[in-house]
């Protein structure tokens, strides 16, 4: 399967709020695509529609050329970090991942590798309830990587990180893209993405206001 996300003409209304108003863009393999825009621009809603968690009123969202809901084994195609708070606080990091691996029909084999990958090997036996936000983000990303998907989608992964955490996250995203994965990463701060992303999608009021390579976009600014 190709490691791509395509959204085309997404529209979504919540009551009187038009959350998505023709959102369209594509995410390619081997690149970090930054999805930047102010709070309320429609980034999270777009990601939820891509994952089939929200239904769009119009338009379509394709993961590797297919709607998420039609993928036979979706977690093997796309991993997502939408909400780092969705953890069982009393479980250790390792048990959290073992439980997720089990519920996804995966063996325990990759748990150690993903903990290592996100830099949590040393905290594997600590309870996730005592983790900092940055450690929770890492644990959420480890969970998204369990099935080794070629596509990753991270909503505001820089939130709550200290400068070391931000540096780590940047290098980590680049290393995932260097493996050929397609990475879509959102932020409300251009500064978090401009040195990290290969490509930027700038969103505002439910639509794309700019879509370009980073060099091109910053030269125009
Ligand atoms: P972003 O992720 O860019 O901050 P969101 O996609 O979260 O933007 O929100 C887009 C708009 O849709 C905002 O006005 C937000 O308040 C609204 N919205 C999002 N989810 C819901 C919901 N479940 N119910 C009502 N309004 C929502
Ligand atoms: P809930 O409302 O209880 O969180 P959801 O159906 O919204 O249940 O989603 C369950 C969890 O699975 C959410 O935390 C969501 O972010 C996560 N999720 C959904 N699709 C994926 C995916 N492809 N990769 C990783 N996590 C996912």
TrEMBL record:
Name of the protein: ATP-binding cassette domain-containing protein
Entry keywords, A to Z: ATP-binding, Nucleotide-binding, Transport
Protein family (similarity comment): Belongs to the ABC transporter superfamily.
Portion of the parent chain present: 1 to 221 of 307
Entry keyword ATP-binding: yes
Lineage, uppermost ranks: Bacteria, Bacillati, Actinomycetota, Actinomycetes, Streptosporangiales
Source superkingdom: Bacteria
Domain ABC transporter: start-end pairs: 5-221
GO molecular function, one term: ATP binding
